Amino acid sequence: MRKSSTIEADWITSAGLRAIVIFGRLGFHCGYVGVPSSHPLFGVKYSEPSQRYGKAPEDMFDVHGGLTYSGGEDDFPVESDLWWFGYDCGHLGDVSDICSEGVFRDLDYCKAECESLAKQISEVAP
User: By C-alpha distance, which of 66, 63, 58, 41 is closest to 123?
Assistant: First the structure.
């Protein structure tokens, strides 16, 4: 994640998990949901199978374009002790300019996707 991204929303979802939506330097929104160290998916990479669940988080959750990020190291745009799962809106059919052919995924769309992802993530917790 590049520090040049603009944070457009930072809130606690209805599922009780923190979420952020950024607008990246390439002109696309990206959404992230953070889990605390007590969550069974804390530290699990989005593309690697979880020992507990036997499958990767990218295969467990339905979000726009699928999960494309996990982490929370120094290059993440917000300081926290959370492990983040994220998606981006830079896929085939998505556009970075609302005047182009395709669909521009706006802030409201991304906030709704984060709410959905947070609900799904919270449902796998014990």
Answer: 41
Q: Is residue 56 in some structural domain?
A: yes
CB of 95 closer than 8 Å to CB of 101: yes
Question: How many distinct structural domains can be found in the chain?
Answer: 1
pLDDT tens across the length of the chain (126 residues)? 444 678 999 999 999 999 999 887 777 788 999 999 999 999 999 999 999 999 999 999 999 878 989 998 766 778 889 999 999 876 666 666 656 666 666 789 889 999 999 999 999 976
CA–CA dist 52, 113 (Å, integer): 25
- The rounded Cα 108 to chain-centroid distance in angstroms is 14
What is the domain range of residue 93? 6-123
Helix (H) or strand (E) holding 59: helix 57-60
Residue 1 lies inside a defined structural domain of this protein: no
Instruction: Read off the DSSP letter of residue 5.
Output: P
